[in-house]
Design brief:
Layout (H helix, E strand, L loop, with lengths): L9 H52 L16 E2 L5 H10 L3 E5 L5 E3 L10 H7 L4 E6 L4 E11 L2 E11 L1 H51 L14 H46 L1
Parallel strand pairs: 1-5
Antiparallel strand pairs: 2-3, 2-6, 4-5, 5-6
Helix pairs in contact: 1-2, 1-4, 4-5
Length: about 280
């Protein structure tokens, strides 16, 4: 039977609250960390795809520098001469990339080498000006798609669309998430044990006061907690002992009053009894 929260011992409540707070904080931080790691991995993978495409352009289409050094010009646009999309598409496919090449008007000049989503007109317009990165899902798996503008002497020749599977990134994130969950649970357990142990030091004075109150209830008016301290529990203990002192003094005064009253009433009653006997 599960006890109600109000019936739990204070030490257990403290330990549960510590574990719950730490669990929530670590969960929020963990989700944020997972999202940040995923964004960094996607960004780096997209950059690697761009460098790979630039290298193939240099190798297959004799692109002049700066691509032979693997750098991008300020506009971050791919330049090539001559315009050979079929040859470039085969080279990219041989490199293990899912590839599709578009003309500026949107028709495909090199058919897709795998299950690639087609670019929308808005995506094509954006990719003609600057690299575009996004994720997409197919019937087989999730993909990281990079669409790169292909220009020659400022004239747009098309858009190179390449993609790679997100399976390695997702597998790494699953491993990170599993380790993260294990760490969060262990940290919550350690926090609960630590708070439960610390609760003994915090609530031990209350146990002492509870024992004294039971002794007073059984008639021992001399029992005192005798706890000292400037914190809340210390002040409560001192007030508790002062209350017991006042209670003991009041009861002693009542006993004296009853004794004195009995003595004062005994003499007249004795005289009255003697008078009645006569």
């Amino acid at each position: 039977m599960v006890l109600r929260w109000s019936n739990w011992p204070l030490r257990t409540q403290l330990a549960a609250l510590c574990a719950l707070i730490l669990l929530i904080v670590n969960l929020v931080l963990g989700l944020g960390l997972r999202g940040a790691v995923r964004a960094v991995l996607i960004e780096r993978t997209a950059a690697q795809l761009q460098q790979q495409v630039a290298g193939l352009l240099a190798a297959e289409l004799s692109v002049p520098p700066p691509f032979r050094q693997g750098a991008f010009p300020p506009a971050n646009r791919l330049r090539a001469a001559p315009h050979q999309p079929e040859r470039l598409g085969r080279a990219l496919a041989e490199a293990g990339l899912l590839t599709q090449i578009y003309a500026p008007d949107g028709h495909v000049t090199a058919a897709a080498t795998g299950p690639l989503p087609r670019l929308t007109p808005a995506q094509l317009a954006r990719a003609l000006d600057a690299p575009l990165t996004f994720t997409a899902s197919t019937n087989e798996n999730a993909l990281l798609v990079v669409a790169l503008p292909w220009h020659e002497n400022g004239v747009p020749l098309g858009v190179i669309q390449v993609a790679t599977s997100l399976a390695p990134i997702d597998a790494l994130l699953r491993d990170i998430t599993a380790r993260l969950w294990a760490g969060i649970l262990l940290a919550a357990l350690a926090a609960a044990l630590g708070c439960w142990s610390a609760g003994y030091l915090v609530f031990q004075p209350l146990q002492r006061m509870l024992l004294v109150s039971r002794q007073v209830a059984q008639g021992d008016l001399q029992a005192r907690s005798k706890l000292r301290g400037a914190n809340e529990i210390g002040r409560l203990s001192q007030a508790f002992d002062s209350m017991l002192d006042h209670l003991a003094a009041t009861l002693a005064a009542q006993r004296r009053f009853v004794g004195d009253a009995a003595h004062e009433l005994r003499t007249p009653l004795t005289a009255l009894g003697n008078a009645l006997e006569l």
